Every structure is written in structure tokens, then in C-alpha cells.
Amino acid sequence: MPLFDTRVAAVLVRLDRNPFHHGTLGAARSLGRAGVPVHLVAGDPAEPVARSRYVRRCHARPPGDGLAAVRHALARVADTLAGDPAVLLPLDDATAVALDELRREPDGPARRFLLPDQPPGLAARVADKAALAATCHRLGVPHPRTLVPADADEAAAMAAALGLPVVAKWSRPWLLTPGAGLRSTVLARSTRQVRDLYARVVQAGSPLLLQRYLPASRDGDWFFHAYCDSAGACGVAATGRKVRSWPDGAGLTAVGTWAPNPAVERLARDLITALGYRGVADLDFRRDPDTGTYHLLDFNPRPGAQFRLFADPWGLDVVRALHLDLTGRPVPDLVRSYGRRFAVENYAALSLLASPRRRVRPYGPSGGLETAWYAADDPAPAFAMARAWAAHLARRAWAAPRRAWRAEADTRAPIPAQPTVRRADSRPDTHAAGHCTAPADPADPPASSTPVSPTRPNSPTGLASPVNPPTPSPRR
Hints:
Elements: E1 9-13, H1 22-33, E2 38-42, E3 57-60, H2 66-81, E4 86-90, H3 93-102, H4 122-127, H5 129-139, E5 146-147, H6 152-162, E6 166-170, E7 185-188, H7 191-198, H8 201-204, E8 208-212, E9 221-228, E10 236-246, E11 252-258, H9 262-275, E12 279-287, E13 294-300, H10 318-326, E14 341-343, H11 345-354, E15 369-371, H12 380-412
Helix pairs in contact: 2-3, 6-7
Protein name: ATP-grasp domain-containing protein
GO molecular function: ATP binding; metal ion binding
Domain ATP-grasp: 133-327
């Protein structure tokens, strides 16, 4: 295993308030086991990850959201480090986008930390769902057909044109207000549900996108994780298959396995090279069962929560590669360990209850299993998670009858007339709004990786001129 510069701390930053974010714990353990001092800026100093023996210090998340919160947190941590260098690692899209802006401020606090030399504004362009769809269309990368409605009537017409069910996404899910009852992605099964979603576009803070639903299929969901160094090389990169997810068939990875997929890897590497991307990346793909083509669903400019699946026999992963590269140490190529598995205990249990059928292993013999929460050398976070998870499920069960009653009342209520929202321009980041049927919850997974598809935001009907064609062929 390569030697790390343990004089350089790592600062993990996450604006997401989800206390069950297992990717944060994975990053703390990965770097802490290598001897790197780990500082954590997260939603709550009492959350399970803060119990890890590998967290040197936990800093409370500052009040507010976005740029101001990250700026305040970085200034405070930099003062704590007394001028010593530290590597910054964002663990959610909101933080990644904020850091991309802060690093361009001449006297901003991000200048006191080590970050990949990312092209300006690229993190926001790949994290924004509408901008990503436009980028895929421009570069010839397959992406589900996505439409951007201008009003509730157009949203209903688009949903019918795409075919129900349809995936409804907020273009910039990190702008959603916590506690507002909005989910980043919803599988809408009726035009009424689509109208209800559009009714909250202003509250959501970004456009509502309607995307063609690619049905789940056996061996159809894949992901690609990589670290791209300062020279653009991606020697630490791998593909994995989603074996179980939560919600089942459309959500985050509950069980995954390391397996080769040359088609997905080629698509991902070509896109990363075309963009000039630097740093850690997590890309999600789904195969269209009708054509066999893999479509890009999401591009996350930070580690995926299941990144520890791709830890090679020497312990190298994308997070360790980031620290080695930014501290001037050589980064070896990843040694492939096909058959290795990764399971998130709480979500895997829910997936198993919802769909108990056996899932076939996709490739080769078992290469070992790593669990997200329990580790023999660091058991405290798993016990803390189990207590918090039990309390969370109890609260959900207690509130279920009231939620069901409200949903039934909503179905009986008349639909109010919605004002037409017109765009000032045709850029992909023009604002729109929507309403999700299920209330948001800290333990619910973030964005579903269910497929979505775009049209040009200011097309006259919204039904023509799609942002990306149904099945484009990738450019080489």
C-alpha cells in the first residue's frame, strides 16, 4: 500500500442533513485507516458517523444552506487547523457545487485547502439534471428523453406523450428546502400527480423535468466510479452492478457487486475525457431493455455512497487516490477485484422485505463482502445507526395513518387552476416547480437513479426538439 502524507488532514464536508449517509462513514474509515487525520463537517455532531474512531474532530454544520454555509464552515475549520494544509472532500452535490464556486474566490477560505483543478463551473453543469441532459445531447451520449414543461397543462401533455409512468425530477435537487415535503425524484404514475408536482415549482427553486421511464431489467443498473488526477488520467476506476436498491428497482444501491462492463466503462471514460473532468466522479447508467443501449442517468461530482465497493486488495479507492494525488504522492492503478460485494445493512433489509426473490450474482466467485455500517475495527457507528434507524422506523409507522388520510383527502380535492409560468430565456437552468406525493424524510435515499429524458426548455410546445434523442450513439 502506498505511503500517505499523514501530516495533511482530510476535511469531509456534507450539507445533506441525512444522518444515515453511509458514504461519509466510508470516507472517514478509508482515510483514517491510512493514518490521515479526519475532520468532519456534517449535519449533526451526534449522528452515527461521528462515533467512528477514525473521526479526529466533528464540526457542527453551520446554519443556512449553500455557499454561505460552506464558506463559514471552511473558515472555521481552517482556523482550527492553524494554517496546516488539508484535503477537502465534498460528499454531496450541494457541497461540490459550492466548493467549485468558492475555489474561484481570490481570498475565499477554499484557497486554504487542497482541491482538484476542476474546470470552472463543471461541477454544477454535471450535477444539474437539465444541463447534464443538454451535455449528453451535445456529446452524443445516450440519455433518456427529457422534457421541460412551461406550465401544468404542458406538464400533463408531456407526461402523456412520454408514456406513464414517467420520471419527474428537479433540475437542481440540492436547492430543495428540507422539511418542504419534496423528493428529488418521483416516479409519477398519473397526469394529476405530474400537475401536483408542477404546482410547487417555485418552492423547489429549479425546473421540473419529465423523463422517459426506462423499466428495470435484470443486470440493467450499473455505476462507474473514478478518480481523475491532475493530468486527466483515470487509473483508479471501475464498474459495478446494482444488485439491490432502495426503493426497490429505482433507488440507491443497497447491495452492489464489482463486475466488468466494457460498454459502460467506455461511455463513462469518453464523457469524462470530453469534459476535462478532474477529481472523484460517480456515474449511474441503466440499460434500455428494448435496445440494449446504456443510458447515463446521473453524474455526481463527488464520491458515490457505495465507493468502498471498489477498494482493491491493497486498500486503494477513489478517496485515497484523491489524497495521494493532491499531496504529491504517486497514485497506483487500481487492482481489479471482481466479485467483491458491498451491502448497506438498513437499506438491504428493506429491499429484501419488499422483494425477497433471490438475485443472481452477475460475475465470478465472491471477492469478499464489505458492509457500510459494521466494521470489526470500528463497531460504534453500526450500533448508533441501529438505534437511530429503529427510532426512525417507529416514527414513520406512527405517522403512516395520518399520511394515508392526507393522501386520500388530496385525491378528493378539486385541482386548482395553475398560473402559467413562462421562461425569460431558453437556458437549461430556467426555474420551474413541482410537488412530490411522499413527504421527504432524512432517511429516504437522495435522488432515485430512475431514468429521465429532456427537451429544449423554451420549445414552443415543449414536446418537440428534445434535449437528447432517444438512443443517440456515443461519439468516440
